[in-house]
Amino acid sequence: MHDKTVRRRRAVLALLVVLSLILLTAYFGEASSGGLHSVQRGFLTVVSPIQNGANKALKPVRDLIGWFGDTLHAKGQRDELRKQVDKLRREVIADDAEKHSYRELLSMYRLDNQLSVNDYHPVTATVVAKSPNVWYSTVTIDKGESSGIHVNDPVINSEGLVGKVAQAASDGAQVTLITDSSVGVSARIGSSNATGIVQPKVGDPNDLLLQYLPANTQASRGEYVVTSGTVSSPDDSLYPPGIPIGQVTSVNEESAYRSVNVHPLADLHNLDVVQVLTSGSGSLPSNITRLTTDLPAGQQAVPSGEQLASTGSGG
Amino acid sequence: MSGISGGLLGRIAALAIVLVFFQIGVVSEVPVFGVSVDLSPLLVAFVGLLCGSTVGAVTGFAVGLLVDLALVQTLGVTSLTLTVVGYWAGRLREVRDPQAALTPLLVGAVASAGAMVAYSIVQFLLGVDAPVSLELLRQIVLGVVVNTIVALPVWAFVRRCLIGGLPDDPRRRRRRAYTTGGLSPLSRS
Question: What span, in angstroms and rounded, lies between the C-alpha atoms of A203 and B33?
């Protein structure tokens, strides 16, 4: 009985294997129009509607299963995209900072060319600290005496005059801004030759006042106020002529001297990169600065035309 | 094949048709880890594990033929591999009668691996122009892993469908053997 069962089992297996091999060989050997292919096509024809029906009926199941897969996939994608966004955001911020620096340096370069301040050996410095109070009028820069910076050297940025060096250490310097009450800059209105002194407006440290202009001075709103290239006292620094300071906002005519309100061009609250116009030994600014120290107070020293021409400075 | 009723054969046929269409219509369109679950070797192996080698082999042949016909593949290839899988699972039951809870998991994994490897070998022997590559091996390994993951639920489903028609359920047989006193260690003492 046992042998019979074993024989039958083995016979069934052999039969099925042989049948499979015959099917395989016949199917593989025949042309596509052969019998087995026809049977397969017929089966497909019969089964296709059922398959389509089943396919439609099972679509919700498929969608449900797919939903889980899609959700997991979407979560993975979301995490990946978040990482990309973070990376791109960092890159954009870095690019913006670089672009900002590039623009400032480009503007400064153009200003240097326009004003010929190269004769003043400009030293580019970065603002590393600002006075923390609202009225701050000093900033600290990362260059000092080791870079040739001295007290009273003018400081500019791409927009115009910023201030002057108040104190200098070996690797840093403190810059007093033009809105500080201790600073007075000899200046003129662009269209006229009349000069005056630019000082911060009392009660409004963000605005400037160009004072001591002759009574017949013509000024109109929007005109530019630029440095005159002279010094008003021995303590003043020699600002190269023609550096823009601000724009006229209004004209005051109530006194013997005319004065105009000036809004500074340089954004003094957002200083980043500045240039210090150094006065090396033997240079024009150095000579004139030395000359002014010998003058009695109240007299002005104006560089002669020859001196200006020899240094290429104009205005 | 003695003791196999027509009802059981009907259940197996219905189960095979339903699972093959479910495989084609749903499962094959839902990739997991980049591969699809292949229910046919699991079905055949579990039928063999429950019903024996002869029924397993016949089921393997029939399911293989159905798959080849429905998917317009070379007739006989899947039949050949699944016949062997069904027979092996049936023989495992007849010779070892494993009762461990994880048996279906291992049987499913081995059956899936055997079917996939055998299918690949037959395809290569037939001259199908597909290079043996790491990608192919990766697909096979992932396919086995995914099939192993679903082996227990499929086993539970197949067993639930066929249990009513089985002439002699292995677990019931084991339980009966203890209660009748023949094999119980307690009865010996």
Answer: 72
* pLDDT by position in tens, chain A (length 315): 667 888 888 899 999 999 999 998 898 888 878 888 888 888 878 877 877 777 777 778 778 877 877 888 888 899 999 999 999 988 988 888 888 778 877 877 777 776 666 677 888 888 888 765 555 578 888 888 888 888 888 899 888 899 989 888 888 888 988 888 778 888 888 767 778 888 887 766 678 888 888 877 788 888 888 888 776 665 556 788 888 899 888 888 766 778 888 988 888 877 888 989 886 555 555 555 555 555 554 444 444 333 433 333 333
Would an 8 Å CB–CB cutoff place A22 in contact with chain B? yes
Phi and psi for A217 in degrees, rounded to 5? -70, 130
Smallest CA-to-CA distance from B163 within B12, B36, B43 is with B12
B127 to chain A: closest CA residue: A28
Domains and CATH numbers, chain B: 6-188 (1.10.1760)
Overall residue count recorded for chain A in this entry:
315
- Which of A284, A312, A248, A267 is CA-nearest to residue A160? A267
Return the structure tokens found at B6.
């027509």
Task: Report how far Cα A246 is from the mean position of its chain's Cα atoms.
Answer: 23
Pairing of β A273-277 and β A258-264 = unpaired
- pTM, 2 dp: 0.50
Query: For chain A, which domains are there?
Result: 113-298 (2.40.10.340)
Cβ-based contacts of A13 with chain B (< 8 Å): 53-54, 57, 83, 87
CA distances from B125 to A208, B30, B71, B122 (A): 94, 30, 20, 5
SS3 A235: coil
Residues of B in contact with A45 (CB under 8 A): none
Which residues of chain B make contact with A44, given a CB cutoff of 8 A? 69-70, 72
Contact A163, A155 (CB under 8 A): yes
Least CA distance to A57: which residue of chain B?
B25
Neighbours of A302 (CB within 10 A): 15
Which residues are paired to A264 by β-bridges? A246
- Is the complex ipTM more than 0.90? no
Which of B36-67 are b and which e, b meaning 16 or more Cβ less than 10 Å from the residue's Cβ? bbbbbbbbbbbbbbbbbbbbbbbbbbbbbbbb
| Number of helical (H) and strand (E) elements in chain B, helices listed first | 8, 0
CA distances from A98 to A94, A108, A266 (A): 6, 15, 20
Helix A35-57 and helix A2-29, axial crossing angle in degrees, nearest 10 = 100
